[in-house]
Amino acid sequence: MKKLLVIFLIGQLFLLSYIFNKSIYEIYELNNVGDSSLNEYIIEDFSGNKLNELYEEINSTYLSNKDFQLQIVKTPISKENHFIYDIYHSELDNINKYKSISLNKKFNYYSLTKEDFVDSNGIFSTNIKLDDLRELSKKIGITIKPYSEDVSYSKIVNLSNINFVILLILTQLVLFIYTFTRIKVNAIKKMLGYSNFKMIQASFKDFILIESILLIITLCVHFLYYIFIDNIVLRYFYLLVVYLIIIILINIVMLLFTQFSLKFIDISLMMKNKIYSNKLNFILYGVKILLIFAITLSISSFMSNYIDYKDKLKTLDQYKQLDGYFTSNGFNYDEDTKARKNPNIIKEYGNSVKKIYDQYDKKEQLYVNNAYVLELLSPGYLKMNGLEKEDVYNSIKDNHIVVNERYIKDFMNIKNENGTKITNLHVEKPSILVPSKYKSQEFKVKEIYIKQYNDLLNYNNNFKISNSESREINDLNIIYIDNNQEYELLGQVYEDDSFVKLKDTILIIDQGNFGSLYYYDLLNSGDLYFKLEQRDDFSQILAKYQLDKLVNVGTLLTPYMDELHSVEFIMYNSFVFSILFLFTLIFVICISNYVDVISNNRRYAIQYIYGYSFIPVFKVHIIVYLLLLVVMFINLFIDFNIIFYITVLGIDFIVLLYLYQKIIKNDIHKIVKGG
């Protein structure tokens, strides 16, 4: 039994240390970038001048004293799925410069200068008291508030809450069985005069020794791995030790709960070799049934995650054509915030994006796809506003997208009124494609979309840029298309389903004449696509126009890959849990049936001698199995893997028959003699 306990405990520690490595420490690392002893604050409605004034005040009043520190962290920019964090600190020599344990994440440390502080997004960390900061903010004319962007650790529990509960119950059960299998040893000790306290002490000493050895083994595995990849981070190992010790302490407390069994030691029964009672048999049998049910739910969850993962792979295969199209995979919030507060910077960014647009539009390598309507079709928005998808589909104003002709030609299958596919539009005037069912409402359609078109032409006015020319159109060319057309927008990721389709959507044709900052926002949101040979080509384009600090490089496949990796992590998490659970379930099935046969060996032996057939001997078990099969109907309400459930019940019965054959039939003479 001790060997089985050791196998379970090492499996438990490996599993939980894996979760620590992949989830807990990564969250800790993100929540403690740089000097984590400092408090974080945010400046509201700031400008470069205000940041300059604040830095001057802090520098002259506090930073001359080494006890006060100031830090900013630049939001990471990713390149080839690598994330870089730039940490600027006023006392760089006095802080721990931790590395990341992730090979795709890097922390760079720099001494903080005024220029760095002014070139930030208004979020900073310091140990200056909040009251003192408020005094400074009043003096300068800004507002400073405490700020927190920490990721919650509860996300880990929410991800696998059922599995964690099952693991907790399993651990308690294994320790319970382990304690009861030592009942004969404890009975002998009791006969020799050992007190309950001494027996508990001996049990704990043995258990702590096992856990200590397993702790060292687990740490060695982690240490050897990080030596192999040459990335030893002492902070990681300090926290891992603390984490594993907490797990071990929880195990010790759970072991303590099992020590009540010492009260049930019956010396007379031990003398008669009756180690296991019927009471223990009933308890184990009930626990086994609950365990089979719970682990079936866990396996069902794993199978569901696996199917989801396979579906995502199929979806990815369908979208392989997107691999040669590049766009931004997120943007630098710090840089964007700074730009939006400075009209000159935002104007330059807009001009740069427009130059890229014109350059690659001429090469026929640029695509526009702006589909805000997808947000209106998201389950969250529909539920919040009490709407159905049809309500959005039937809205003349909301059900529209902005695309260029090239996107329509290469990615969409749109038919004209006669049902013929539109291949070449060649529009020269401001135009929209409208389902023919709106012909009777042409005046209303024009009224709405002339205004919408003018808003896009004068998009730069939203940024209060001086010398922006107002442009307007008074008429729109309407091209009517077939009704009830449905199509998926490749390159877009949806909240609930990768195959959500648009229906009866009005298409605004982009001709490259909208406000430059409209294209700036499209680039940030990943709605401008470039057809290029490789990723470096896109990186070079961004660098040429000083946009490489603003956006992250990605293909149109990137969002699907991110989603796939998320599902992959959940699946592997479920898989590791399932392996441990399966091993434990087999162990519990063996122990439970062993106790059943041993505690009822006299009855089984007598029935065997009198020639009872298979069914009468196991009549109670068969009835219980039939009742348990009724549980299969739970599949109508929750995800429940019936095949696995029936297989486990079958294995349980086979183990019972095997032990009956081995213990009762083979040793019938010993049992009859009272052995």
From TrEMBL:
The keyword Transmembrane applies. Keywords: Membrane, Transmembrane, Transmembrane helix. The chain crosses the membrane at residues 162-181, 207-229, 235-262, 282-303, 575-597, 609-636, 642-660. This is Bacteriocin-associated integral membrane family protein. It comes from Bacillus cereus.
